[in-house]
Structure formats: structure tokens, C-alpha cells
Amino acid sequence: xxxxxNHKKKSSLKSSVSSSSIDRGPKRRFQNRLLKWYGxxxxxxxxxxxxxxxxILVSEVMLQQTQVDRVVPKYHEFLGxxxxxxxxxxxxxxxxxxxxxxxxxxxxxxxxxxIACEAVEKYGSTIPRDPAQLQSMKGIGRxxxxxxxxxxxxxxxxxxxxxxxxxxxxxxLGNGDxxxxxxxxxxxxxxxxxxxxxxDFNQALMDFGAVVCTARKPxxxxxxxxxxCQAFPVEIK
Length: 237
Ligand code: SF4
Description:
Blueprint: H1 4-13, E1 17-18, E2 21-22, H2 24-41, H3 53-63, H4 68-81, H5 85-90, H6 93-100, H7 107-122, H8 131-135, H9 142-153, H10 162-173, H11 182-192, H12 198-211
Helix pairs in contact: 2-12, 3-4, 3-9, 6-7, 10-11, 10-12
């Protein structure tokens, strides 16, 4: 259990979030410390060495249901076979599914293939950057659209996957079920992006959730957010 002293601190900070807005102090601290942490500990991942929207999209679709360490070798292999959007669009859907193996969730390769075909037919063989156009494509939801805009087009677009939801909920709202606060967390994710730094900030958020503020064993005692995190310290069951 958290000590009484800590409860006091939490109740005084609860007011830091009202509807979707976050007080400047915690907001700045979170932004600065997250970016600093990312500068020191951010992961070196292959899709961070490209800004090709097609390659970013492939990585994001692969990461939708699969852990990073399983995605990395398949990402290289898949792009070796289908290096461009046009190559993927020209392929047979069943061949794409075979190339996807053993990642699982077989609907994803078919959807990726259909996105490639649509991009070729409707958008001049490019991945659109417009959020409405992106989300009109089957297989691209709000998160994936935000990731493509942010990581391929360098826009300050918010993202909210399971990891990001968990981090934002714990830091600014405390313990509880993030799924019950989805719209508020989307608003927070947007509000927190430091202007012009959406790429690094969003990558940092995802790494932080995967490495420090993990679901089962968060490293609260070593966490740079611990002095203002509303969930600190998370009990490990
Ligand atoms: S103190 Fe714990 S719960 Fe809070 S952000 Fe850090 S790791 Fe997550």
C-alpha cells in the first residue's frame, strides 16, 4: 500500500487535470523528463531509420498485435520481398499472407495489401497524410493514422495505444482502467505533444510504456516521473 504521505500528495495533485487540460507544471515536467529519458534510453528500431510512409505503415500494422522482438526480423524479410507500395499492391493476397507468416492474425496481411491497392488506385501510389483519408482505409484506425502522420510526415499528431494509455492514465489520473477514459486520454495525448517534437515525443511515450511503465512490473522506484505520478508506487500483484 502507498504510505499516507503519498496519498496526501496525490489528492493535492488530482486537480492537475481538468477535463482534457493538464496544469503547466506537471505537463512540462512530463515532457522534459520523457524526452530526456528517450535521449538516453530510447530503443534503436529499424523503422526509426526511415521516413518512408510505406515502411512506417508496414511496421505499424505488424506491431498492432505482435511484440517488437518478433516484428524486427519479419519487417526486414517482408520489405525484402515487397520493397515498395507498388510491389505490395501487385502481389497476390495469398502470397502476402504467406510472407506474413508466422506473425499471426491473418487479417492483417490482407488488409495491408488492400491498403496498398487503394493507395495505388486513389492516391497516386502514395500513402495519404490526411487523417480522414488514412482512417477511411480499412485496417487504419485512429492510432495507426496518428503513427503514420507522426513518424512518416513529422506531424504533431497524437497516438494512443495500450502502452500510451497506461502511462498517461497512471501519471495524470492514477490507478484505474484506462479503457474507461479513452476520449480523455486522446485529448491528453494531443495536448502533451511539445510543438514540433511529435516524432520524438510519441516514440518516447511508446518506449517508456514498453520499458519503464510496464503493465505487470513497472519500475516505479527508478522512474523519472515518480515525484508527480498519480499512481506511484504501483503495487505489483
Ligand atoms: S512512477 Fe511507476 S506508474 Fe508512475 S510513470 Fe513511473 S513507472 Fe509508471
